[in-house]
Structures are given as structure tokens and as C-alpha cells.
Amino acid sequence: MLAKPDFQAHRSRLQGALREGEAVLLFGGPHHLRNGDAEYRYRPDSDVYWLTGWPDPHVAVFVTRDAITMFVEPKDREREVWTGFRPGPDGAKAHYGADEAFEWGEIEEKLTGLLSGIDTLHHAFAVDAEHDALLMSCIAKARRKNRRDGLSVPETFCSLDKLVHELRLIKGPDELEVMREAGRVSAEAHVAAMRVAAAGMPEYRVEAELLRVFHEQGSTGPGYTSIVAGGANATVLHYITNRNTLKDGELLLIDAGCEISHYTADITRTFPIGGRFTPAQRAMYDVVLKAQLKAIDTCRAGKTFNDVHDVAVRVLTEGMVKLGLLVGDVDELIADESYKKYYMHGTSHWLGLDVHDVGAYGRDGQVRVLAPDMVLTVEPGLYVAIDDADAPEAYRGIGIRIEDDVRVTDGDPEILTAGVPKHPDDLADLLASPQS
Ligand code: GLY
Ligand code: MN
Ligand code: MN
Questions:
Q1: Is 262 labeled as catalytic in the residue annotation?
Q2: Per-residue pLDDT at 436 exceeds 60
Q3: Of all atoms in ligand 1, which is nearest to the CA of residue 224?
């Protein structure tokens, strides 16, 4: 049995943080057709899902400290024949934590009433113009009513970052269990992909192996489009075409992770097709691995988010000088950002329901201090463009990234994705025993 999020615990955290007169309004995203009459599989809005577990589109959730009201698609026998079961308002109350629930068509009238007596509203403004227009219309009506009954209407507006996303940043025990599961299944998929990858094979065959393991293990799907990048494709940070042919002696970079109950993992490994690093590949790999291990060790309560990046940048820049990619004094190369030629992205991002999860990286002008149960990635890399005439020839066209998912604790960092090897000896052992 896969672990499940405890949505009731999330509701208690949010409602416990609201005061009288304060409310949160969430909208789920619409459903989009892919092309023609073909449908995308609907992926719930992360905030709505975090709070309710509601899986379907066209939903709004209004939360005060005392009550949760949901607006959902009605039961509709004819539509259900085509697109499946709808819980409807009764289902919202029975299974998704709503105290009150109404059909979507009633939202304008009911929301106007709910806004009376509210002075502060949390809402994701400027994300969906229709939702903003609906809310403004309700506020205008509530204001007219308020002239008669004297109840407050929202005059203070906050983005979801202020409260909801701060809560999502600190993972509860239930969420950590689900994320461990996502890390375990994703690691298993990477190991399977390493075993199957071989010269002459198209990158998409390796992607198919990742997806096989994700789906066989009950994942809700990949958390983002998998990157399967052979050779110089690995120097393209968001390469997702995955249609080239793997060649012996080249490196293969795989960046892939699956969702369990919509919480995602995010793992990158880079390894040699054929099992043996060239000396240049190994020299670059060792630099990236050293940077990653040191940055992971920096993921400790009391350190800042930027400390993790700074540690990685220093080790990588020292390595670039040793490798002959950069010439000069390490401090100066960091200060003038010369290192960005070969390391141009950040080292970390928050991880959770979104692969680049919510939560501010700084507050009140200060960089975020890491605290227990924050989960972040650590993903340093080195990328040398194939046509970089300044780089020693042996490094041209090599891209390496190593990425794990790390939970901050009161003590040592917990690595959620430790099930897939990254030390060269362990990689060699695994690659020496390809798929039987
Ligand atoms: N897979 C996306 C990232 O690593 O940020
Ligand atoms: Mn990442
Ligand atoms: Mn990644």
C-alpha cells in the first residue's frame, strides 16, 4: 500500500493559522483538451489538492477558521458516462473535508454571502482572469450589501505565498512518507534505466523504462517531462526531445522523477554508456560529485538556502580551475561570476507537490534559513558546450549533473533518493550487470 497524504491534517494546520475575519479562496485549474477531442489527464491544482485531495477540475474552496465550503461540478449522469464518476457536492462533504458544498453554478451568489464578515482574503491574484473577475464581482455585491448590514468585506488581500505556501513549505509527517515513496520508486526507475541503456538505443527507449517503473508502482505519473540526454544533449539544460541514439563512450544524463499522490521526486544521474568513464569524463564527474556531497552536507537547520549554493559554487569553481576550464583566482572567478560559463543554474529548489515547489527563498529581505522538514533538491552540474573553443577539447560536449532530494532535519540531512548509486565504483558495479 502506497503512503497517502493526510488532508485533514493539512486543513487543521491552515484553519488553525486563520483568525476570525480572515479567509482563503482557492480555485482549481480548468480542464484543457490536448488536441481534437483528445483529453489531457487532469492534474489537480496543488493548493486545492493539498487541502482537500479533490481530483477534478472546476472547483473552488473557501476556508475560514470555522468552516470549509466547496463549489464543485454537479452530478451529471450524461457527462459521467463520458468522463467518469463525479463526487458532486455530497461527495465533497462525505470525502473531501467540506462542511458545506454547492454546485459550481451557485458560486456567485454563495460566495458573495461568504465574503460578508471577512476583512482579509488570501487568493492567487493574476493567475486566472475569470477567477479574478468572479471574485471582484462578488466583492462588489458584498460591498453594496455591507452598506445595509454593516458587515466587513475584504479590504486586505494577500497572495497565497503569505500563508498557504509557507505551510506547504514545511512538510508534515504524512507528506514526508509520501515523498520517501516517490524517492524510492524514482530511484528504482533510474536503476532500471541504467541497466537497460546501451549503445545504439534511442533515448526514448530509456524514457520508456522510467515510465514503466513509475506506472507499475502506482505513481500518478512523472512529476515533469523526463530528460534523457545522451552525449552533448546533456549540455542543454531542459532537453526533453529524447529522440537521439546513444553512443558507446558518451555519457547519458537522466533527470526524471515520479509523483506519488502528486508529490514528486526529482533525481538526476549521469553515467557512461558502456560502463567506463573516459579520464576527462571522470575528472569532471568527480568535481560535480564532490560539490554535491558537500552541498548536501550543508543542508542543515540554521544554514541558509544560499549557503548550499555557495558551497557548490566554490567546489565547482575550484574544479574548473584544476580542470583547466577557467584560469585565475577562485575568489575572483566567483565574485565576477565567471563560473557561470560552465555552471549557470541554481543548486536547489524546494520540492513537494510541485517540482519547483512553493515557498519563498527569502523573507523580509533576508535569505531563508533552513528549518527541519523543508525538502530541497541539491543538483550541481558542469556543462561544456560542444563548440566551446576556449575549453580543452577533451571536455567539449560533456554535461554532468547529479541531483538528490534532501530533507532538512534536526541533525544530519535525510536523502530521500539514496536508492540510486552515484559513486563511480557503485555505478561501475551496476553497469557491469546490465539487464538480464
Ligand atoms: N527536473 C527539473 C529540475 O531539476 O529542476
Ligand atoms: Mn531539480
Ligand atoms: Mn531534476
A1: no
A2: no
A3: 1
Q: Are 145 and 112 in contact (CB under 8 A)?
A: yes
Tens digit of pLDDT for each residue in 258-315?
999 999 999 999 999 999 999 999 999 999 999 999 999 999 999 999 999 999 999 9
Q: Where are the beta strands (DSSP E) in 56-112?
A: 60-63, 68-72, 100-103
- The secondary structure of 246-301 as a DSSP string is P-TT-EEEEEE-EEETTEE--EEEEEETTS---HHHHHHHHHHHHHHHHHHHT--T
- Indicate whether residue 355 lines ligand 1 (CB < 6 A): yes
Superfamily classification of domain 171-432: Creatinase/methionine aminopeptidase superfamily (3.90.230.10)
404 Cα–ligand 3 center, Å: 8
From the CA of 378, the nearest ligand is 2
Q: Is 286 exposed, middle or buried (0-12, 13-18, 19+ CB in 10 A)?
A: middle
Which residues place a Cβ less than 5 A from the ion ligand 3? 255, 266, 268, 403
Candidates 224, 240, 351: which one to mutate for ligand 1, based on the most atoms within 8 Å of Cβ? 224
- Superfamily for domain range 7-168: Creatinase/prolidase N-terminal domain (3.40.350.10)
pLDDT in tens, 311-326: 999 999 999 999 999 9
